[in-house]
RING-type domain-containing protein (Pinctada imbricata), 329 residues
Amino acid sequence: MEVCQSELLESELTYVKQKVPTIEGVTLEACLPAFVRVHIYVSDQRQLTALLQFTSKYPQDPLVTELKSKTLTEKLLDGIIKLCDAEAKKYVGQKQVILIINFIKNFLIENPLCIVNDEVAKLKKELLSNDDECKLKQKSSQIVFKVKQEQYLMSFKVSVPVEYPLKQVQIEVLDNNFPEMLKTIFLGQAVEIARKCVQPPLKKNPKDPPFEPKASLYPMCRHLIEDCIKRYGKENCPLCNERALPPNPGATVEKKNRIERIYCGHLFHLGCLKTYLKTPPFAAGKFCPACGKQIFHEKWKVSPELQEARWAHKQARQRELAEVVDFLE
Ligand SMILES: [Zn+2]
Ligand SMILES: [Zn+2]
């Protein structure tokens, strides 16, 4: 029996030595009676070293797989190991090494999103609720998010390039019921965040460490989900404390209830903001009641003096009218 097993192993090792050089992207690093070690390369990000160990009962026992990678996370490697163990069990009694090598290589080819598994897990855990969706499209290396807040929703598709993280993720909005103006802002900011992850700043600060491209999926999606969709879907106008967006998306709103997004990012009703800007005091400028930042808005570039004069004029007119009413009574 012993002899038989060692002969089987010997013949498998011979087969491995012949076969591995014919598999693209796989390098045989060691081929010994105790273990076989190979490096499997699919892309710069999707590569690993596999240590395939034989127990004393092999091939009646399944192969024991260990994986190491500089680019893939421990969690992902643990997952692949579990799959390998299950796969090896299907082939006990047979040659398993080449089967397992091909299994791992195919996994890496068919799951290009495995390079962002930690970022996706973090997004799901920290930011998405049960009503939201996050679907991985491995074939096209894309992730489709559908994120809701009250009556508002946005779904978007994120493409992860092969060169990720050296190249940034790309985004496309699929469905959206936020006002067009907000959608444009959300998208513009998201693209900019992703770009900054991989492109060095134009103005370099000599004190900064050398620029290194960073993973852009999480920062971009976090911004869209947390700072845009989840925030504005339930943001109140800081002046009247009612929801800034109409409770019914897409409903026609009166002009005074249209939203204005000001410099600091807070949303106001047009009517509330106009009244606030036209009411004294003016001298020190106008500040956002929610965050205390000064209100700048292209539409209201009016000096405190002019605002003061307008206010005085309006007051005078109201006094005149009041006097007329008094006179009539
Ligand atoms: Zn308001
Ligand atoms: Zn503010």
About this structure: The beta strands are 26-31, 35-41, 47-53, 64-68, 133-137, 142-149, 152-159, 170-176, 259-261, 267-269. DSSP finds eight helices and ten strands in the chain.
